[in-house]
């Protein structure tokens, strides 16, 4: 149990999300997701969270485990071609995780997702949140366009609006 981590999460104000991702930035991210999905057969979700609640912290929940839970709760897995991708931003731990559905994981290696996450984290350390998010969406778009070209019928199966948890 890491007391320092627990205290950082419990005392993190919710407004740190608005500082890093103001409404305008969330709208820009939403537009980028919408544009991205027109170029491939995948579905993107962007979720940002300030801190975790006490119980998950006491259980030692990692950012990756939380991202997996958010992937499930947002039903990113619920696409016709198993082509959902979640970008999960955990502000207090300063961690980013990308979780991809099994259809995508069969073609894109985890190391590629991890590299995108680390570049996002580097941009975020410089307080370039919008730039880091848009660059990551651009890189994910290139991967998905290569492995999941758009179909003739390419419905929007998941909301494009970023989720603030």
Ends distance: 24 Å
Tell me, what's the shape?
globular
Radius of gyration: 16 Å
Helix content: 40-55%
What oligomeric state do these chains adopt? Answer: single chain
Q: Give the strand content.
A: 5-15%
How would you summarize this macromolecular structure in one to three sentences?
The protein is α/β, with parallel strands linked by helices.
Can you describe what's shown?
- By secondary structure, the chain is an alpha/beta fold.
- The chain has a single domain, classed as Diaminopimelate Epimerase, Chain A, domain 1 (Roll).
- Helix content is 51%, strand content 13%.
- The chain is built from 8 helices and 4 strands, in the order αααβααββαααβ.
- The protein has a 4-stranded mixed sheet, with helices on both faces.
- A hairpin with a 4-residue loop joins strand 2 and strand 3 (95-100).
- Helix 3 (23-37) packs parallel to helix 8 (129-147) and helix 7 runs antiparallel to helix 8 (129-147).
- It is globular, with a radius of gyration of 16 Å.
- The model has no long low-confidence stretch (mean pLDDT 93).
Question: What's the topology here?
Answer:
Layout: H1 3-10, H2 15-20, H3 23-37, E1 43-49, H4 54-58, H5 63-73, E2 84-90, E3 95-100, H6 102-105, H7 110-125, H8 129-147, E4 163-164
Helix pairs in contact: 3-8, 7-8
Descriptive terms for the model:
165 residues; globular; alpha/beta; 4 strands; Diaminopimelate Epimerase, Chain A, domain 1; 8 helices; 4-stranded mixed β-sheet; 13% strand
């Amino acid at each position: 149990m890491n007391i320092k981590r627990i205290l950082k999460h419990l005392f993190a104000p919710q407004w740190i999300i608005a500082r890093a991702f103001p409404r305008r930035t969330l709208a820009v991210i939403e537009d980028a997701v919408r544009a991205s999905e027109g170029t491939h057969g995948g579905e993107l979700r962007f979720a940002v969270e300030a801190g975790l609640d006490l119980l998950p912290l006491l259980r030692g929940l990692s950012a990756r485990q939380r991202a997996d839970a958010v992937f499930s709760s947002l039903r990113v897995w619920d696409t016709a071609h198993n082509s959902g991708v979640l970008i999960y931003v955990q502000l207090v731990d300063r961690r980013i995780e990308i979780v991809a559905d099994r259809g995508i994981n069969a073609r894109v290696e985890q190391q590629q997702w991890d590299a995108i996450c680390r570049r996002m984290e580097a941009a975020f350390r410089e307080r370039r949140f919008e730039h880091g998010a848009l660059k990551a969406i651009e890189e994910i778009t290139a991967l998905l366009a290569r492995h999941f070209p758009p179909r003739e019928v390419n419905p929007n199966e998941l909301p494009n609006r970023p989720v603030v948890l």
